[in-house]
TrEMBL record:
Protein name per its UniProtKB record: MarR family transcriptional regulator
PANTHER family given in the database record: MARR-FAMILY TRANSCRIPTIONAL REGULATOR, TRANSCRIPTIONAL REGULATOR, MARR FAMILY
PROSITE patterns (alphabetical): HTH_MARR_2
One Pfam family cited in the UniProt record for this chain: MarR
SMART domains per UniProt: HTH_MARR (SM00347)
The organism's place on the tree of life at top rank: Bacteria
Domain HTH marR-type: 15-151
Length: 172
């Protein structure tokens, strides 16, 4: 399935700067050394993919593995492997899907929730130190704008998915 091309609209200088800043943030936050430091502070021996999965689960009701994969933007097989490892380690459990007893949902265990809480607290402490000179109002504005941006990215992604489905249906 091919992705429809993006409209040929030039990006504004402000959007270019935002994209550059996000690239820098992504690089800094996904460095192996940074992840290892955060896990050591939190006392949680997990890789980045496992932490991303646990964080997503902590922010939602129990989900099917396919839905977790969609939310994380990864292949379902990736989530299946991660869930198996996390289940063996006691971080997650499988429970019957109340809408379809043949299916299962994944939920955090108490150990999993405690791990997420420790990771979030360690991350927030580091962020607090970095943003210590920011006023509460600046922090509220930044949080609000970040949430708005993420919501807009998700909306655009859903719209592109619908366009891809429509394009695929037209070529079938």
């Amino acid at each position: 399935m091919s992705t429809p091309p993006l409209p040929n609209v030039p990006a504004s200088p402000e959007v270019i700067e935002i994209e550059r800043a996000l690239t820098r943030i992504t690089y800094l936050s996904t460095r192996t050394r940074q992840h290892e430091r955060l896990m050591a502070l939190a006392g949680v021996p997990l890789d980045r993919a496992a932490v991303a999965l646990l964080r997503q689960m902590a922010d939602s009701e129990p989900l099917r593995p396919g839905e977790l994969a969609n939310r994380l933007g990864v292949e379902a097989s990736h989530v299946t492997r991660q869930v198996q490892q996390l289940q063996r380690s006691g971080y997650v459990d499988r429970i019957p899907d109340p809408d379809d007893r043949r299916a299962q949902r994944i939920k955090l265990t108490k150990v999993g929730q405690e791990a997420v809480d420790r990771v979030r607290e360690a991350g927030a402490r580091g962020m607090q130190l970095a943003l210590d000179d920011w006023s509460p109002e600046e922090l509220r504005q930044l949080a609000s704008l970040f949430h708005r941006m993420v919501d807009d990215f998700l909306r655009q992604g859903e719209e592109l998915t619908e366009q891809e489905k429509a394009a695929s249906a037209n070529t079938a």
